Amino acid sequence: STLKIFRISREYPSESQVASIVLPSLPDGLEILDMSSLEGYGKLPIRLPSSLITLELPENVRDGIGELPSSLERLNLGSSFNQPLPRLPADLQVLIMGNEFNQIIPRLPTGLKVLTMGENFNHALPKLPAGMRVLNLGNRYNQELPSELPRSLIRLDLGGVFFNHPLPMQLPIGLQFLKLSYLFEQELPRELPPGLETLVLGDRFFDDDEKRVIPKLPENLRCLDMGNGRYYQQIPKLPVSLKKLYLGRVFQGVLPDVLPPT
Fold first, then answer.
1. CA 257, CA 42: separation in Å to the nearest integer?
2. How does pLDDT run across 37-65, given as a tens digit for each residue?
3. DSSP state for residue 43 in the 8-state scheme
4. Strand 134-136 and strand 155-157: pairing?
5. Residues with Cβ < 8 Å from 30, sequence gap 6 or more?
């Protein structure tokens, strides 16, 4: 039988051996190479198996990686990786950047479904694939988003801190999760997607405008997080579907007379 999965645990090798690890030639037929638990590692094999579907790099790979197999569907860069990427396979579905990665990506694969940035990435993105479903920005990301987001997008996380650019006037109709960054102070679209289930506002969202109000909330909203900014206005009517409401530390607004029964 052919080896399908090669996963290296954190316990191997010992600390004294970490710097000198060299993987052997990997067999054709291997589908998963997972080294994400390793705290240190030297170099990847020159040739990766053409059958590889998942590649999880260890924490401390700093050298570049060669040509990626066309079969690859998931690529997780190690936390220290910061080298230009080779051409990404057209069928790649998941790309997870490490915290140190900050290289220009000239083109995203047409099949990409999930893009998660690391801590330091701050380059403008190319056109987003039409079928993308999840976009998670990193803490330092502060570039304008494309004027049109993919209609298939269900999750948009604007990162933890710096993003502060206007959102498209119309958000994807199927969006279910929207989280604003800490410094986000732009207006939200007048109409939020009807299927939105979670809305997380940033701590600075209300700070620059005491009269700013929340737009009408979708009927399917289940979670509303007001952030920790100062909110002085009346909270709009809450959807009957709402299950969680988080108020900030300095909330000074007015709650509706009737809270949802759920």
1. 62
2. 776 665 676 688 999 999 998 877 777 88
3. B
4. parallel
5. 2, 3, 4, 5, 6, 49, 51, 52
